[in-house]
Amino acid sequence: MASVSIRNVRRRYGSVTVLHGIDIEVADGEFLILVGPSGCGKSTLLSMIAGLDGISEGEIAIDGRVVNDVGPKDRDIAMVFQSYALYPSMTVGENIAFAMEMRKVHKAERDAVVERVAGTLQIGHLLDRRPAQLSGGQRQRVAMGRALARNPKVFLFDEPLSNLDAKLRVEMRAEIKALHQRLKSTIVYVTHDQVEAMTLGDRIAVMKDGRVQQLGTPQDIYERPANLYVAAFIGSPTMNLLPVRLRAESGHWMAELRSGDSSVRLPLAPAGHAATGEREAVLGLRPEHWRLTEESESGALAVTLQLVEPTGADTFGFAEMNGQRIGIRLPPKPMRHAGEQIRVRPDLASASLFDPSTEQRIEL
Ligand code: ADP
Ligand code: MG
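Above: the input record for the complex with adenosine-5'-diphosphate. Below: its predicted structure, written as tokens.
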């Protein structure tokens, strides 16, 4: 096991810069996620840790040793790719044992490792098959088995579950998490799937256009997104981002939120005595941060549901507010229907605020 230090790492292809100064310290035993949309530079960064891609600037250290000039074979890492990259002409057992064979590990020891790994991943009955004779999920397990057999300092995963169907993806996700808890191995795991990121990671680096937008625990990132991009990227249904006007009034910041003809004034944080004036802001509210209220309550907004989506455990309603679609988590009962009007009040203690011009989080 080992730490991974990524210090001011840049990657250029000709005149195009795809990674702009990445700084991430992955602790020994940590499960770190790189998440972001396609093309943001996740695989490039992972390949640089693996040594498969060169570093234009900055440095990467594994277990305290700078590896910029160390070849992939000498970095003591194992990588699992989305495509699995199994050797088609070898059996499952041979695939798992291959790296040990290259290192001239004795057959008895190789067999013992293959047996142990196959047991862990429940693929003991598949050892004599070739990759073509396996399902996608089984190939995925073999690819993981090959990585486990190397007992590396660091595991690197590049979208390992993307080719699996939804049910299997959820199962494998749980297995990878359990495996990490058992082995306490250092993992850097790339995904574009925010649910995978939230459920697996000890910490998450949210990336966009070759930059880390926020690095934090899943809870940090969900509850206190650093900017509008992260706010909108993490969470489903997405965080509601509502334009408001902030005003300092008699020791309190108030947010004015309009919906059609009605508007409500919402007390936010206490303001210092010196605080004066007004500013535009964006109020970020997750769908679960609305409270349904009764007719009479002040601070409530009337909205008409346009769509109701039961997902089993939760039901989400969608309504329009100033031409913007907003999501509201609804209590399971009574079942609501499209066309119904409801009254909602934001739970301000859980709200986030952003500056509309810089798009950064603001704290009052
Ligand atoms: P992700 O894995 O997040 O989808 P990648 O790391 O694969 O993104 O790619 C990041 C960016 O780098 C993309 O814009 C991609 O087109 C570019 N890129 C990747 N490899 C090369 C290459 N060999 N030459 C030029 N550009 C590349
Ligand atoms: Mg990729």
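Notes for the reader.
Helices lie at 42-50, 92-102, 107-121, 136-149, 166-183, 194-200, 218-223, 228-233.
The longest helix spans residues 166-183.
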